[in-house]
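Question (not urgent): is this output format expected?
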Amino acid sequence: MRNIPLLAASLAAITACTPAPNAEVTKSRPIPVTEPAAPAAAFLDPVAGLAPVASVRHSPADLTAAFMGLGFRLESGRELPYFSRFEGPITVALTGNVPATAGADLDRLLQRFRNEAGINVRRVSPGEAASVTIEFSTRRELSRAAPNAACFVVPNVSSLAEYQGNRGTYRVDWTQVRERKTVGIFAPSDASPQEVRDCLHEELAQAMGPLNDMYRLTDSVFNDDNFQTVLTDFDMKILRAWYSPKLRSGMSKPEVAAQMAGIFGTGGPLNQDISITPPAWKDLIAVALNPGYGTARRKAAVERAITMAHAQGWKDSRLAFAYFANARLLVGSDRVAAVAEFSKASSIWRTQPGGALYVAHIDMQLAALALTNGQPDQVLRFTDRAIPVIRGAENHGLLATTQLIRAEALDMLGRKAEADRLRVDSQPLARYGFGSEANIRARTREIGALGLSGLFRG
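Got this back:
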């Protein structure tokens, strides 16, 4: 199951602390500041003195632990008694109100499955019998079945109506599945092209392979934090192993464990903390990220999540993500403290596999803060570092946001021609990442407000 995308709210924490500009007022005097203005030094690069992001690889022991953790537990925490997969060729069909970009994105994804994971999978025409049916419905229709999910996957059904008719029964219970024969994926028809693509990547991978998400995995879409938006090299290694001839549907956990050395090899230390993440910690993080709960409750939740992470002895992405969530909450009230929390998160993610994308996410946040504080040179430093990483991760919405922040900084520096070119270059990315023109205009206005605030604050 893919949760509501992180990017949708990522800038909100920053724009929420910026008063909406009134053109007749802000051109004549600075926007009043209700909190003490932070000293400029507080927004200098908090991680400039750290080593570059580490290139961390998984050992055979790490891969084995990840495979077993992903393979025998659901996101809810329930254990799976059997290993399950499709046996034989896999077919995929698109049905419902299929978005215009979905077909091409699916074809590219299926090609990756064939080339990188060695899975025998192909697309079939609508109406043909399919192993996996991807049905597109409106977000309102999907929310009736799964309120907090952007998209989700269900066994033994081929339509949303069929799922709703069997909801709560053994037929749609993954713990009862020994071999996969029919799976339904339910995705939004009225989402942005990027959200549709992201759903295809995660849900199709789960339909064919692991059903769990683990916060500790940083270079994987099998992670509830939603930083990785497309399947990674690590994910393809897991899926290739999933369809190894050494495994078969219906095997028990000990039987699968006995085959791991023959699949991933042996040697190398266990580098990852493989402790199970308590559901209570996940619940706290969910509250911290949900603006519907109010600031006080969210702040209490994230502080408890940080305390729990320390009590568990975590030094991995789980602690970093708690710091990140805290930083986003602090931006509106204490930007200096927010930068300190972002820095703590960045320091951890620099040591994790795939951590460069997480650091780039933080660089985007810090660039927005620097823009608000009237420090365009700092914005250029952060965006110089972030943009190549974000582009490589194919996160077009995040890339458009970062480029638009950079364009505002270029305007501040009097480099208008460069700024205008960058805004033009960002338009195709924004259309793919945000969807409607209304969404693009809203995001552009938010970022413009940051620049205007910084202009009069600086």
